[in-house]
């Protein structure tokens, strides 16, 4: 089997002789390059997480409501609600839109008081 290194890629010195693809190539490749198979090459960069202070949360229903409402926004990949501290951590692929998140939190019956 012959491997073709894509433009901008490099050959790994790892014993498995994997190919290190340029950033993003294996995610959306118009030429259909295969995904890397070595575990050390498949780790993706962590997505940014933003923490907000939210007032009015007190129970499991509050947590479920905010998790669902914020989680339905475009670009949101994770929501963690901490009732004890009154904080909501939102994980997104890009910088979150604070105004959009504040609107969703307000519509759900809570108040986003700012970033932490």
Automatic annotation (TrEMBL):
Residues 48-113 form the HMA domain. The keyword Glycosyltransferase does not apply. The keyword Lipid biosynthesis does not apply. Gene3D superfamilies: 3.30.70.100. The lineage of its organism: Bacteria, Bacillati, Actinomycetota, Actinomycetes, Kitasatosporales. Keywords: Metal-binding. InterPro entries: Cu-bd, Heavy-metal-associated_CS, HMA_dom, HMA_dom_sf. It comes from the Bacteria. This is Copper-transporting ATPase copA. GO terms for molecular function: copper ion binding. One of its GO terms (biological process) is copper ion transport.
């Amino acid at each position: 089997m012959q491997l073709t290194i894509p433009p901008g890629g490099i050959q790994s010195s790892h014993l498995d002789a994997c190919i290190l693809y340029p950033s993003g190539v294996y995610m959306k490749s118009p030429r259909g390059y295969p995904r890397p198979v070595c575990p050390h090459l498949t780790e993706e960069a962590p997505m940014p997480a933003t923490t907000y202070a939210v007032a009015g949360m007190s129970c499991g229903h509050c947590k479920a409501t905010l998790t669902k409402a914020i989680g339905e926004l475009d670009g949101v990949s994770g929501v963690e609600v901490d009732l004890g501290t009154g904080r909501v951590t939102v994980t997104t692929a890009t910088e979150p839109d604070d105004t959009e998140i504040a609107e969703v939190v307000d519509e759900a019956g809570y108040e986003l008081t700012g970033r932490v």
